[in-house]
Amino acid sequence: MNEVAEWIQEAFEFITEKSKRNVKVIGSQFPHASMDKKYQLEPASWWTAGFWPGVLWNLYAQTQEDSFLKTARACEDKMAVLLSDVETLDHDIGFMWTLTSVADYKITGSKTARQTALLAANLLAARYNIAGNFIRAWNPWYEGDKNCGIAIIDCMMNLPLLYWASEETRDPRFKHIAVQHATMTEREFIRQDGSVFHMVNFDPETGDVIEKLGGQGFSNESSWARGGAWAIYGMALTYKFTRNTIFINAAKNTTKYFLDQLKDAPYPVWDFKVPDNTSNTRYDYPDSSAAAIAACGLLCLADIVEDVPSAQDYKFQAESILKRLYYTCGTRDDQEEQGLLRHGTGHFPEQKNLDVPLIYGDYFFVEGITRLMGQSISFW
Ligand code: GLY
């Protein structure tokens, strides 16, 4: 095995120590964004619920520290009851149960975790709209909200739950749905230059595309950085499970775009095409979470591309991003701050969680660092 660089070991120790402290104060609750150094909590049904237990499963796999397993399991138990109420759950079932029950099953072989994850996969598969070949994103946000034709780029990261279910049951139904959704995403969401739309609105009866939207990005023609990162990692994972070249080409195209925009910066602005700040509005908020997700996508690409120089280059770029994140955003100098990475932006259009630690930024940073430490189990 290659020797692990000193900065990676140091980053891993920082993550492990802070997470041990967080286990004592956060316990089996569901953190989202850190304000004034403390993670704000969400209900177990919020899309971010899997990331904190996901951090703990990654660390448990590396350390076998019992408190990580116990806390992750306690989160999983609280979430399991949600599976009997489909109206509280949306397509983020994938994020939520991949990083809890699938992770648990892959690490411990728990039969209960397997059953829970298979139930979650069935509910995700049931959101597939056969007319438009898309997985429906959300449930109505308010009385009368007609959003059953909406698909979003983030869903690429929900598909691994379906690939896992097909492998586990030796039944390709789940995979067929995932591949149809990914094929639609490659066609409708990814622009020629490698940037992406956040949302596509379909007519849910006919499956026709009605409009393509910027969603959490600045505008319909702009380029939401985290959406680009979801596309990189999601397309790389779909290639890993299908070996269909359209998906590796999509992963490479979105990666090139992201890296060309990022250059040597540790993290991007939350949207690659924001206007300059005006006296009334600040637009240039950072998003470290996008960089952490993209870095994990690059590590995945490094594992799956066949030509060795490209694989080495993806690995080099991933390490370089994670190192820049660690030194620029890592909260090593602040014991009180619960978040691991500063400078994430949650939702600029709603002016929520701007320039703060975000649990999904933390999660992908932990995934990246544990991968560099030699962790071989992928939860996705
Ligand atoms: N999946 C929502 C987000 O990335 O903010």
From TrEMBL:
Molecular-function annotations in GO: hydrolase activity
One Pfam match: Glyco_hydro_88
SUPFAM superfamilies: Six-hairpin glycosidases
Keyword vocabulary terms for this entry: Hydrolase
Signal peptide positions (record): none
InterPro entries: 6-hairpin_glycosidase_sf (IPR008928), 6hp_glycosidase-like_sf (IPR012341), Glyco_hydro_88 (IPR010905), UG_Glycosaminoglycan_Hydrolase (IPR052369)
Membership in a protein family: Belongs to the glycosyl hydrolase 88 family.
Record-given protein name: Glycoside hydrolase family 88 protein
Biological source species: Alicyclobacillus fastidiosus
